Amino acid sequence: MLWLVVAALAVRQMAVVLRQPPGERLTDLETWIGENGVLHVTGSLYDSDRFTGTPFAGLVLKPLARAAEQNLGVLWTFGSLLLVAALGVVAARALPGPVSRRTALLAAPVAISLLMVSLPVRDALHLGQTSILPVLLVLLGCFVVRGERAPGLLIGVAAALQPTVLLFAVLFRLTGHRRAAVTGGAAFAACTALAWAVMPGDSWTYWVHHVAGAGLGGTADGLANQSLHGALLRSGLAGPLEIALYVVLAAAVCCLGLRRAARYAGDGQLLLAVAVTGCVAVAVSPTAWQHQLLWVLLAVVGRVGKRASDRLVWPAVVVLVLTLPGTVLLPNIEAVFPVRDNVLLIVALAAACAVPFLPRASEHWQHPVPAERAAPVPARWSRVPLLPFWRRVLSRPNLLLELLLIRVVYSAYAHVRLAATAGRATAEHHGRQIHSIEQWLHIDIEHRANHAVVNIGWLRGFFDYYYSTFHFIVPLVILGVLYVRRPADYRWARGTIGFATLLALVGFWLYPLAPPRLMPGLGFIDTVHGVQDFAKPDYGSLTAMTNQYAAMPSLHFGWSLWCGVVVFLLAPKVWMKVLGLLHPLFTVSAIIATANHWVLDAVGGAAVVALGFGLTHLLAGPRKPRPAAVPAAAKPQDDLAAPLPVPVPVQMPRATDDPVGGKQL
Q1: SS3 string of 209-259?
Q2: 373 phi and psi, to 5 degrees?
Q3: At residue 655, what are phi and psi to the nearest 5 degrees?
Q4: Which terminus of the chain, N or C, has fewer Cβ atoms within 10 Å?
Q5: Cα 107 to chain centroid, rounded
Q6: Cα 28 from Cα 34, distance rounded (Å)
């Protein structure tokens, strides 16, 4: 099944690339070896900044320029996918042992799938870049070929294509492979000298004028440059001060990172050592574009954490960062912009210098400390829970991973919610259906409530503020309190609201619905967003950030009802329970009074929340498991026949028995 996933991802990647118009696919490759590419025309490769490779790369690609004109997109994309597959197979076979049979079977397809969906591979396929090849050459040199000279030769050729890869020669030297290190340096020098001899002007331009390609491609301070140099430029530094600071930081990262890599190689974790060295190369390179960051994904093989609950944190962080853009991982808050803009660099630096990867000699390498789970007990129905392995974990989850996953899930929710629309006509048709049903049921109170609130200024202001503010704040506060004070109940509560939100997305997709404020001719007043101009075709799109027709079910009321139920069940004080129940009451009043939802929308919100609680109970069992029933044979037949407990005399210590300074007890 995993290999079928790999095949599907490969087909999808080829389709995504080849469906693009000719001028928008393989843009970098087209500017190199296309009909009017820089490798066809006379003059320097670097007359413009379109060619970002080394002179040796240009020397290698020049003979392929005319041969690649026919079927350029198909052949290049298919060849790149083959390189990705080879890279995944080599990386899977290089996992540090001992490796279980299951891991050995699943490693290759999982590795290739992760590579396929990673941002560097997707970017390289879209642009037609060659950045996958140096990574594969390094892995072949470290894990496939034998001897000392062949690995060094492959490293030298890879460094001629991507200069910072020469750091692997230093890794060879630190791990005792002196001949391989010398061979790698000699091969790099030979390839570079060959390019100098054939193209002296281009070599001078690349190595001297552009300082090893630092001035080619996009601007060095752009977000695409995920290196220390780019981060310093984005922070506002420039000139000699920035260069001096960059050199000092790069030297420190090289020293610390390469020493760590050598230590992991000596520990038998050579793949992790390769990943750490690659992360160092990413950080210290003058320019590290997104398609050159594939090294960071290899760091997923490192094992971090003594507890089983922490073991998945580092792999999850690496996979999320390497597959999703920073805008999805972190909220649009100015305070986190420096982290969001440099998240790939931060992960690379962490892997190179900071993450405490476990050595293979650690007692927790194979057997981490297991998470504390509730003991299994019989439920009311024999088929509950349906997933018996999903037992309640009593400890709180890792905070970093939890915040990251919550943010990613919410971003996915926002994107699906925005896409779940069928147009104004369908939404208004459904709105008339809901209005007719409410009239038949005699619960169409929206118009009267809306106009009554409009005439009372302070009440209108209260409901407008409540609708706009408390929708997100209250659920987040409750989740935060449960995380700190009730970790086991936190997992249960998080699961219920997650299922409810997922079911609501299905409702948004299947039944787009215009709220009362967007129904022309019914006389509703939008108290929150202002008067709508129904003459404009897109009047319902108040912003590009939300889908105005995602009204059924109402998550405003659904989430507030979830808050009320959770507080009522878990709060220790009566006044807290009452206060929790007031929140859904105020929310349903606000969504009706402001004309943002129908009454039946609230009913739908209550339904998905009830289903969320039900699914959590069905899959994972009850929140508070019932104690196991005592067998009838173990119970005494008659209370009078049961033997009375015999009192056991307890000897109290004397004052002189106190071992602490003779004080009396």
Answers
A1: HCCCCCCCCCCCCCCCCCCHHHHHHHCCCCHHHHHHHHHHHHHHHHHHHHH
A2: -120, 150
A3: -60, -35
A4: N
A5: 20
A6: 9
- What spatial distance separates the first Cα and last Cα of the chain, rounded to whole Å? 70
CA distance 13 to 20: 11
Burial track 17-53 (b if 16+ CB lie within 10 A, e otherwise):
beeeeeeebbbbbbbbbbeebbbeeeebbbeeebbbb
| pLDDT digit string, tens, across residues 397-451 | 888 888 888 888 888 877 777 776 667 788 888 888 998 998 898 888 888 888 8
As a whole number of angstroms, the distance between CA 293 and CA 315 comes to 16
Work out the average pLDDT over 207-221.
80
Tokens of 57: 């790369």
Give the E-state strand segments of 34-87 in sequence order.
none
pLDDT tens digits, one per residue of 584-629:
999 999 988 888 889 999 999 999 999 999 988 888 777 765 444 4
- Going by the DSSP 8-state scheme, the letter that residue 108 receives in this structure is H
In which region does residue 144 sit, left (phi positive, over 0), alpha (psi from -120 to 50) or beta (all else)? alpha
Distance between CA atoms of residues 220 and 231, nearest Å: 9
- Dmax over CA atoms of the chain, in Å, equals 109
Alpha carbon 96 to its chain's center: 25
Q: How confident is the model at residue 129 (pLDDT cuts 50, 70, 90)?
A: confident
Separation CA 610–CA 562 (nearest Å): 9
